[in-house]
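Protein modeling request. Please complete all fields; requests missing the sequence field cannot be processed.
Requester role: graduate student
Desired output: 3D structure, token encoding
Chains: 1
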Amino acid sequence: MKLSTFKKEKWGDRPDGRWVKATGMQTLMANVLPNRTDCEVCCRDTIDATELLKFLEKRNAEHPEYKTTVFHCALLCISRIIKERPYLNRFIQGRRMYERHEISLSFVCKRRFADTAEEALLVVVPKDDTTIDSLSRYIVGDVKETRKSEHSTGGVDKIMDDLAKLPRPILMLVVKVIRILDFWGKLPHDIWETDPNYTTVLASNLGSIKCPSVYHHLNNYGTNSIMITIGTLHKEEMVMEDGHKEIRDVIDVSATLDERIADGFYFARSLKLLKHVFAHPELLDLPLGEPSGFEYK
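Delivered output (297 residues):
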């Protein structure tokens, strides 16, 4: 899926974002620390997925043709967090703060589970009417189409393949020009509209390859301010609300964020919704545009 294109609403806006007023501290940080990798903050947590697995077992028994996974649920949860916590949908580029026009998620899909298999980059743009059913059906269908081909299927994959064929000096010059154009918000749509580095969240489903969640750096290229890795499901002893201990199905999540877009308090409160939805998976059937009713305390 391509990101939507927009006309600039006013001077200073970009095709992929609206220029918003930053605080004095954010403005100074954008100038003193202009590189995104200089401003990383990493949050890690363990999420109880026991109730979610019960929910998925029932749902997949009713719809075996479109298997909904924990990763699909996590993507919708992340979308809801960003919908209800709009500061997370901001980015800094050209030393200015921008707010995206839409929520966008991207992830990498292996064409085959083999060391030599190529990777494809997929982008999902959830809308207000998106539910877990519609999101899962879209992702499953898109991944199936991608895996039918062993090679690039167009979009950013083809652009990267073409650039990689250039002689090194020319490639260095092209990359420098791209960075300059991006700084001023003049990058051609064909480059950024399918590039995962220009999405709200770049997610990595490490659980699909039986790997735990890990810290993953942000990139100075693009506008992506949030990188999330989701690990494999495993058993772990947890202390329940009444104080007793119980073996539960859990999943580790690691999020790396650009601290210039919001403060740590805002980030910490935002993560609480992820735990809440996993504990109350019926909220996944709620359209994204409808409030969850969760109170951020």
